[in-house]
Amino acid sequence: MRLRPSRVVAGLAVTTTMLVSAIFGLAPAAGASSCRTVALKSGNYYVSAEFGWDGHGGGMLRARATAIGPWEEFVQCDYGSYWVFEAAGASTITFVSTEKEYEQGDYGMLRARTSEVGTWEQYTLVVVRSGVFALKARANNKYVTVERQYVGDRFGMLRARSDSIGPWEEFQIFAL
Predict the structure, then answer these.
(1) Which terminal residue of the chain has fewer beta carbons within 10 Å of its beta carbon, N or C?
(2) Cα–Cα distance between 137 and 160 in angstroms, integer?
(3) Which domain covers residue 21, as residue numbers?
(4) Based on the number of CB atoms within 10 Å of its own CB, is 100 exposed (0-12), middle (13-18) or buried (19 or more)?
């Protein structure tokens, strides 16, 4: 049995969290988990966790799939002032993390790679417009960007690297 995170009410960001909770039908209750299986989409592509890779890029998140399969499913959990995403297709509990110690073109890469939740695994959701959100990493206070200009196995890599929201930072979140 997988244990899901508990909700912790704290800070001013609760207003956005409550709005997103209402949109997705999540009913947060003090001390109770509030999680839902979702798929994230940017442009025409669903976000995938690359579990077939080892090492540095293992578990990298990329917007590259045209359909939803096990690698495109995430469990989105409400912690009150932030959200955590767990890769549902992993064989063990694997939370999405922002790699803020990576350098240059890999700085801020999002990877499904850890069983613990710390600051690197925390994201706030910013409502851009109806049905469209931006993710902001608490690890470095940057918005998550889809690297559409990358080619090959880096195409569509998700990185927390932007100071502003544009089309590459916009996501739709679909409850599954």
Answers:
(1) N
(2) 6
(3) 14-175
(4) middle
Dist CA 93 CA 2 (whole Å)? 7
Measured CA to CA in angstroms, residue 3 lies from 18, 25, 86, 91, 154 at distances of 22, 21, 11, 14, 32
| Position 68 in a domain | yes
Q: The domain spanning residue 146 has which CATH number?
A: 2.80.10.50
Amino acid identity at 94: T
The total number of structural domains in the chain stands at 1
**The whole model's pTM is what?**
0.80
Written as one letter, the residue type at 72 is E
Q: Is residue 5 included in any domain, yes or no?
A: no
CA-closest candidate to residue 160, choices 87, 90, 85, 80: 85
What would the two tokens of residue 145 be? 């960007």
Give a yes or no: residue 71 inside a domain: yes
Residue 149 makes CB contacts below 8 A (sequence gap 6+) with: none
